[in-house]
Specification:
The protein has 260 residues and is α+β, with helices and mostly antiparallel strands. It is 32% helix and 28% strand. Strands 1-2-3-4-5-7-6 form a 7-stranded mixed β-sheet, with helices on both faces. It has a 3-stranded antiparallel β-sheet with strand order 8-10-9. The longest helix has 20 residues, at 212-231. Bound molecules: coenzyme A.
């Protein structure tokens, strides 16, 4: 049994820090410390954990996943608006691909909506096929912004020493699109104007010194495609994967239906 609930107390927050290091393999300078998790919780952010009730001792010992967000403010048209920036989602290796990541995000959404917050954003690596599938296809996020080398140099082992390019996922929590996708309907993109592909071999290319150049080539080619498409008013609205594990972003015109 997996219980999804806010993390409470120093030990559970420290367990999130440990899982962060286990997941990304960060050097000390990249690790977000317990204090920041604590501050985030006390200023309107979220630290939500997944706990395996079968693990003896419970609490911090049983933490198998977490999602962490910070509160943010959007300025622009109209009054400043509160939103959440989700900075980390991690599930222990042995617990992956059984829906825990999605459950953590759904709890994040539920809790945000209960406070009247309708928008969560996060960044993700466009080369991570699984994350893109989860974010766009399973959660209903959309994308219309590309940040080249967003974090600068990162010690994350998942990054494979590539520039930290990121897409910005926008999750419009109460939109018709998101409500229907999380209710189990598949995300059908009515008009696909462009497809951007990521080969399944990207994972092995990123992690091999001999083949990293190939990953870099895909990254820079796709960077140009995304930037040009977003400049033309296109947005990522769909994501598919084929039987061999290749991923495909589907881009089309963003109508207000996607956001309301
Ligand atoms: C990203 C992460 C949190 C997802 O957690 P999870 O519990 O495995 O996620 P879920 O099981 O809820 O959903 C994963 C989905 O991706 C699918 N998937 C798995 N491997 C995949 C792949 N190689 N390509 C495409 N989709 C894949 C799963 O089948 C599942 O979809 P389904 O529900 O339709 O079957 C987890 O993999 C992780 O901790 N990764 C390392 C850290 C990370 O990248 N975090 C996100 C960025 S901050």
């Amino acid at each position: 049994m997996i219980e999804i609930r806010p993390c409470a107390g120093f030990d559970e927050l420290e367990a999130c820090v440990r899982l962060q290091v286990e997941t990304w393999g960060y050097e000390d300078s990249d690790v977000i410390p317990r204090k920041v998790f604590l501050v985030a919780q006390s200023i309107g952010g979220q630290v939500i954990g997944a706990f395996d009730s079968e693990i003896a001792g419970g609490g911090a010992k049983s933490l198998v996943g977490f999602v962490f967000s910070l509160p943010g403010v959007k300025v622009g048209l109209g009054l400043p608006r509160a939103y959440l920036h989700s900075h980390m989602l991690a599930v222990k290796d042995a617990y992956r691909n059984r829906g825990i990541g999605r459950e953590l995000k759904l709890e994040q959404r539920r809790e945000a909506l209960s406070r009247g917050v309708c928008h969560i954003e996060w960044t993700f690596d466009p080369l991570e096929i699984k994350n893109a599938f989860l974010n766009i296809h399973r959660l209903g996020a959309i994308v219309r912004s590309y940040r080249p080398d967003f974090y600068g140099v990162s010690s994350s082992r998942l990054q494979g020493s590539l520039p930290t390019d990121r897409l910005v996922a926008e999750w419009w929590l109460d939109s018709r699109r998101v409500r229907s996708i999380i209710a189990g309907q598949s995300s059908v993109v009515n008009q696909v104007n462009q497809r951007i592909k990521v080969p399944a071999s990207i994972y092995s290319w990123k992690s091999s010194n001999a083949e990293r150049e190939r990953a870099l080539a895909v990254q820079s080619e796709n960077r140009t495609k995304f930037q040009e498409a977003f400049a033309r008013g296109q947005a990522v609205l769909g994501y598919t994967r084929d039987g061999e594990g290749n991923g495909v972003f589907e881009l089309g015109p963003l109508s207000q239906l996607e956001l309301n």
